[in-house]
Amino acid sequence: MSQNLVSDKIAGLLQQQGAEYIVGFPENRLFNSAAALGMRPIITRTERVAVNIADGFARMTNGERFVPCVMQYGPGAEAAHAAVAQAFGDRSPILLIPGEHARAAQVHSPTVGAAEAYRAITVWSATVNEPEQGPGIFRRALQQVLGARRGPVLVAVANDVLYASAADDRPWEVSYPGARRSQADPADVDETSSILAAATSPLIVAGQGVLYAEATDELVALAEALDLPVATTLNGKSAFPEDHPLSLGAAARTRPATVDRAFERADVILGVGTSFARSLYITPMPPEARLGQIVSDPRDLATGYDVGFACIGDAKLVLRQLLERLQNGAGRTDRGNDDVRARIASTRREFDEAWRPRLTSDAAPLSPYRVVWELMRTVDRQRTVVTHDAGHPRDQMVPFYETVVPHGYLGWGKSTQLGTGLGLAMGARLARPDWLCVNVMGDAAFGMVGMDLETAVRCRIPILTIVLNNGLMGGYTEYMPEAVARYDAHRLGGDYRGVARALGVHAEAVEHPDQLRAALERGISCVASGRPALLEVMTHEEPTMAGP
Ligand SMILES: Cc1ncc(C[n+]2csc(CCOP(=O)(O)OP(=O)(O)O)c2C)c(N)n1
Ligand SMILES: [Mg+2]
User: Fold this and answer.
1) Residue 169: is its pLDDT beyond 90?
2) Is residue 372 within 6 Å of ligand 1 at its C-beta?
3) pLDDT of 233-247, one tens digit each?
4) CB 3.0-4.6 Å disulfide test: which of 34, 217, 418, 485 passes with 390?
5) How far are the Cα atoms of 69, 74, 371 from residue 30, in angstroms, in the given order?
6) Model confidence at 10: pLDDT above 50
């Protein structure tokens, strides 16, 4: 077998850059070349799940490692679009390597090149149309994936180029600086610390930049030094331990009352590792508060709101600069007898009491809140990552699943592609084989990607999937009342445990809350033995959401 095709050179380069797996759907010669080198191919059932796997892997490894994601030119590249849009919205640093139509065919109508078609939802895209372009294009791509971490990067390779003989036997090698960090201008650090010190009710909003920078310890230290309440964004959920007395929870569409009470009082909000993006799934910033940011990329400044002060630099390093500044005397001004922790605790107590009946509900079919509650109390949260799916599962989990370690929760969704959670959990498991990886999805979400449970079985990626089956699309009566009244257009049907079993998954139904705990425990031990498990929990539609 030839080891001297362009495809072999690319695979060798990817392996040299640390890739252990290659995920996607054929035809793409890279699968063969990678396998010849001992990189494990993960062939999914749909391209979108492959991209979700690469996305989950990138996020769980803080963008330090990557799984190249490949698919065929034309239909394969086209089919990946939904998941790439999702990754672009969430800024996941993934490397996509679709094939491209052979050079001679690229001029024919209606052929559209992948690099062009994906330009709007990638941070950079290029086509390798000559073997000699390969190393240069891949160097630029890798620097952006592993160094800049701003989102999906795409390198399309013409199919005839993939199969072309390379000019010589030498491997392709590239070198590039990768991730480099910088501190902020000391004047900006001074300004930020003075503004925090002078504020009467400052707080922090921590985004996923804190996770990428591995800055949780520094964030906790700063919050404690200044008694600053900390909320996270949806994507940043788990950047600050939610069992900490200064935690407000995630500032998402649905949220604990602690977020709203703190936002109402805030006069200064410091965003750390967040672009302050606006979306339906993010709590809007209060108009009265003065906003500041710590971001590593100046392009993230003042994108969604007016911003008055900022530090440009790596979150971990800048937080350390702020802490040093505090040690050197720039302390907190006296905020009187204001007991920040007591106020958070009392709001939380009231909120928890108001919600306890739903969380512990004995209803059958089950309340989805009961499932979140029981899941949280069953897993080892130090070594578990949980993710939601679009729809009510997201809205019902985010306020109530209390995450205690970085990446204990994988929050996502600006584009909110239904079904994303399954691939994210699989990617998380590849990144953290010693962790329990759980995705909680509705029945409509299952319909989008359920077939890829077979990928989890075949490729031995044991995850725990919980399907909240309420037999419908939650909340959709409101969006299409006539269609529901006349045709039941919001209803769906299916025996999902049966589907899962037929695909080789250990699957159980949970019809009564009494069965839940034991079923979860069986599912967890099944996953520990290497086999994916699914619990189909029969739930009722639950329209009540946490939030204002
Ligand atoms: C690909 C895609 N199409 C449409 C939507 C809009 N959407 C969001 S949630 C939802 C219904 C979700 O139903 P289900 O998964 O059963 O969860 P439930 O809300 O019923 O718990 C739909 C259609 C989407 N998020 N993604
Ligand atoms: Mg549903």
Assistant:
1) no
2) no
3) 999 999 999 999 999
4) 418
5) 10, 16, 42
6) yes
Using N-to-C axis directions, what is the helix angle for 368-378 and 513-528, rounded to 10°?
Answer: 40
pLDDT of residue 333: 61
- Extract the tokens encoding 81: 């679009």
Position 1 scores a pLDDT of 47
- Please state, in angstroms and rounded to a whole number, the distance separating the CA atoms of residues 206 and 278: 15
Residue type, 254: T
Walk me through the domains of the chain, giving residue ranges and CATH numbers.
6-162 (3.40.50.970), 186-336 (3.40.50.1220), 360-538 (3.40.50.970)
> What integer best gives the mean pLDDT of the chain?
96
Please give the structure tokens belonging to residue 16: 């040299």
What local confidence, expressed as pLDDT, does residue 330 receive? Answer: 63
Asked whether 42 lines ligand 1 (CB < 6 A), one says no
**Interatomic CA distance for residues 376 and 381, integer angstroms:** 7
E strands, 284-395, are 290-295, 309-312, 384-387
Express as a percent the part of the chain with pLDDT over 90.
95
Q: Is the pLDDT of residue 499 over 80?
A: yes
Type and span of the H or E element at 98: strand 95-100
Place of tokens 């720039």: 330
Q: Ligand 1 within 6 A of 89 CB? A: no
How far is the C-alpha of 92 from the C-alpha of 295, rounded, in Å? 16
How much is the pLDDT for 329?
Answer: 73
Query: Of all atoms in ligand 1, which is nearest to the CA of residue 391?
Result: 9
